């Protein structure tokens, strides 16, 4: 089966598009992603990424513009009869490695951590609590920036999610509204205000994704 997706981002700061074609060969999926950079100055390999993926096991990406390979390996282990999801990622060209882990305490509580091996302080810790399956609260702490982040989201009208967030390191307050459809794709409208600026003029953006079966 071949699936295609088209994602467009429109905003006052950045505007662009990404197209993805996925060939499902059973256990392994082949994926090609292109951005509008492939066609700005005529057809080129700029913005092209090829991927080989086995879900919940591994992903290998090759980025043509950066001539970089990314290896990602996933595994799940049991700790005190609860799942711990681990993801190991290595960027060969950048010589950068990261380890992500998510520990599911129960259906409503989980703790996540991300550690970058290239820096002693590159570590982020996040706690997530979901109340009644509708409201999610996510405080997090970035040890590298010595800063707290906070986000709260609420599911409304079935597939609509409203999310507010604040990053203390950048003093940016954000608000997103996302609607997802299993058939047609999704769209998101976002607004962000930098509270450190005197003008405090919000930036607005919209993002939409369309899914196709070929």
Automatic annotation (TrEMBL):
It comes from the Eukaryota. InterPro entries: OEP24. This is Outer envelope pore protein 24, chloroplastic-like. It comes from Coffea arabica (Arabian coffee). The lineage of its organism: Eukaryota, Viridiplantae, Streptophyta, Embryophyta, Tracheophyta. The gene is LOC140011188.
């Amino acid at each position: 089966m071949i699936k295609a997706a088209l994602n467009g981002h429109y905003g006052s700061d950045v505007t662009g598009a990404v197209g993805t074609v996925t060939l499902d060969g059973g256990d392994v999926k082949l994926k090609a992603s292109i951005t509008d950079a492939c066609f700005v100055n005529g057809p080129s390999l700029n913005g092209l990424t090829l991927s080989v993926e086995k879900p919940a096991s591994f992903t290998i990406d090759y980025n043509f513009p950066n001539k970089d390979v990314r290896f990602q390996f996933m595994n799940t282990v049991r700790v005190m009869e609860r799942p711990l999801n681990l993801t190991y990622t290595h960027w060969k060209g950048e010589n950068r490695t990261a380890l992500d882990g998510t520990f599911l305490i129960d259906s409503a509580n989980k703790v996540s951590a991300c550690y970058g091996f290239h820096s002693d302080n590159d570590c982020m810790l996040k706690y997530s609590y979901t109340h009644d399956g509708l409201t999610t609260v996510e405080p997090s702490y970035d040890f590298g920036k010595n800063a707290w982040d906070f986000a709260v989201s609420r599911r409304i009208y079935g597939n609509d999610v409203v999310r507010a967030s604040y990053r203390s390191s950048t003093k940016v307050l954000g608000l997103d509204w996302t609607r997802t459809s299993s058939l047609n794709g999704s769209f998101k409208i976002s607004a962000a205000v930098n509270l450190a600026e005197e003008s405090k003029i919000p930036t607005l953006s919209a993002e939409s994704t369309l899914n196709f079966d070929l």
